[in-house]
């Protein structure tokens, strides 16, 4: 092997190794100082791309968790408002039960009505005041609003709405029939929500003495037989009829008043029934007829059957003029109700006193229409309040279910975020043990390279000088 003093190939090779080692050493320092394995795209292009997407997901999930937390707060606020509404409704129900008692006077019921009116106004105020970030939660806003609970588009949860407006709360789709067909409902005459209602039968009404298959009791029985399929039920309303001017006279074997097959006879009726003898005689037979009498505002006799049976009047001789009551049969009416709007159809729905079409909610059955100044009104109020309580309870259950879902969502997002952060750490973070070991190795190499480079140059020159000296 020749000895050359101008050839520095080995020196250049060692210099390249030293430069490479310095580059790697600087990266070691950079990774240890930043704590990251990837500080720029050149460190790991694919890893940086994956890490950036994961970082976007983690940050998005963090905000989604905060959004879900806001949803939980909103649901809790709504539930607290609905709880206050429930407390007011419970007090109203207590008052309605009190007003239903027959021992109360008209002034007593007016006092109760005053408190009910105040409670009704407070329920309306609660609906207006229960808000979250300026948005009404239970005041009857048109739509629910969605919560973004994910890092990606369309990952939402709907926060339900509620409606405690007093002109809606307690309301129900309802329609009261007009006059019923004397022969009742025949097969195919009536359908509700697409379900055919069976024909009425005489056995449906065990109390009416005539036209029992066409009574309100029979019609309600036929409708209620299909309630499980239609979601609609019927209640029988009180039957009533009013007579005209009472001329007065003797009710005897020649002049008989027969109500539901029972004769009212053997008495002298004064003009205008001044002594209430007619009214008293009719009421004395109420256990047999199911009909009671009272004076109406015009001075005539008003007959009523609370159970909705037909009221059949037959008058012989001059009984019509004597009593002011006309021969004929009066049928009751039915009120048909559902939890949601329902459709009435059929070949002849008028046989049930109904018209074809869609029946929606009516404000006449809402909380703000409660009137307990009469005993009958107090009884109706109980039905309205019970519906209102059921509606509020249903709304609270929806908010509670949504709150549980959001809390579960937050828990799931937290787990997902933790796993993604751990994954991102494995991709992007520096391994300190490895980097410290590499740093030490490269520092030793750098020192060795400097020493060897110096020795290499020195040895070449010394060898050449020795050869020259030996000559």
Main attributes of the structure:
four-stranded antiparallel sheet; f41 fragment of flagellin, N-terminal domain; rod-shaped; Alpha-Beta Plaits; single chain; alpha+beta; 471 residues
What does this structure look like?
The two termini are 19 Å apart. The protein is built from ten helices and 21 strands. The chain folds into three domains: 161 residues, Up-down Bundle (f41 fragment of flagellin, N-terminal domain), CATH 1.20.1330; 97 residues, Alpha-Beta Plaits; 90 residues, Alpha-Beta Plaits (2-Layer Sandwich). Strand 11 and strand 12 form a beta hairpin. Strands 8-18-5-21 form a four-stranded antiparallel β-sheet. It has a four-stranded antiparallel β-sheet with strand order 7-6-19-20, with no helix packed on it. It has 471 residues and is α+β, with helices and mostly antiparallel strands. Helix 1 runs antiparallel to helix 10 and helix 2 packs antiparallel against helix 3. It is 48% helix and 15% strand.
Summarize the structure.
By secondary structure, this protein is α+β, with helices and mostly antiparallel strands. The chain is built from 10 helices and 21 strands. The mean pLDDT is 87.
């Amino acid at each position: 092997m020749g000895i050359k003093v101008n050839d520095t190939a080995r020196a250049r090779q060692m210099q390249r190794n030293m430069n490479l080692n310095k580059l790697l050493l600087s990266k070691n320092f950079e990774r240890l100082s930043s704590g990251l394995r990837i500080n720029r795209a050149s460190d790991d292009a694919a890893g940086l791309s994956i890490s950036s997407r994961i970082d976007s997901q983690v940050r998005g999930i963090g905000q989604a968790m905060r959004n879900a937390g806001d949803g939980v707060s909103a649901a809790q606020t709504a539930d607290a408002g609905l709880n206050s509404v429930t407390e007011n409704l419970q007090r109203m129900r207590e008052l309605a039960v009190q007003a239903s008692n027959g021992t109360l006077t008209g002034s007593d019921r007016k006092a109760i009505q005053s408190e009910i009116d105040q409670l009704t106004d407070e329920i309306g105020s609660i609906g207006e005041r229960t808000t979250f970030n300026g948005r009404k939660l239970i005041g009857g806003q048109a739509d629910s609003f969605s919560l973004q609970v994910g890092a990606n588009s369309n990952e939402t949860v709907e926060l339900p709405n509620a409606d405690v407006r007093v002109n809606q709360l307690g309301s129900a789709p309802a329609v009261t029939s007009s006059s019923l067909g004397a022969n009742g409902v025949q097969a195919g005459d009536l359908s509700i929500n697409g379900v055919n209602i069976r024909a009425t039968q005489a056995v449906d009404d065990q109390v009416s003495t005539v036209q029992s298959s066409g009574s309100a009791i029979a019609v309600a029985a036929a409708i209620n037989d299909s309630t499980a399929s239609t979601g609609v039920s019927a209640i029988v309303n009180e039957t009533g009829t009013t007579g005209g001017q009472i001329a007065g006279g003797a009710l005897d074997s020649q002049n008989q008043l027969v109500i539901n097959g029972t004769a009212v006879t053997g008495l002298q009726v004064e003009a205008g029934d001044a002594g209430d003898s007619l009214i008293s005689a009719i009421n004395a037979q109420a256990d047999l007829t199911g009909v009671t009498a009272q004076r109406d505002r015009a001075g005539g006799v008003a007959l009523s059957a609370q159970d909705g049976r037909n009221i059949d009047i037959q008058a012989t001789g001059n009984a019509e003029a004597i009593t002011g009551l006309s021969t004929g049969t009066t049928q009751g009416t039915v009120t048909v109700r559902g939890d949601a709007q329902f459709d009435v159809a059929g070949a002849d729905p008028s046989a049930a006193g109904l018209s074809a079409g869609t029946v929606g909610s009516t404000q006449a059955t809402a909380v703000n229409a409660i009137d307990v100044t009469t005993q009958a009104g107090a009884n109706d109020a109980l039905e309205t309040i019970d519906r209102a309580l059921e509606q509020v309870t249903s709304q609270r259950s929806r908010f509670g279910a949504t709150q549980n879902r959001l809390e579960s969502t937050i828990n799931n997002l937290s787990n997902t975020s933790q796993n993604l952060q751990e994954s991102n750490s494995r991709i992007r973070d520096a391994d300190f043990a490895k980097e410290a070991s590499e740093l030490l190795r490269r520092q030793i190499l750098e020192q060795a390279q400097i020493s060897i480079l110096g020795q290499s140059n020195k040895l070449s020159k010394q060898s050449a000088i020795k050869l020259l000296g030996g000559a």
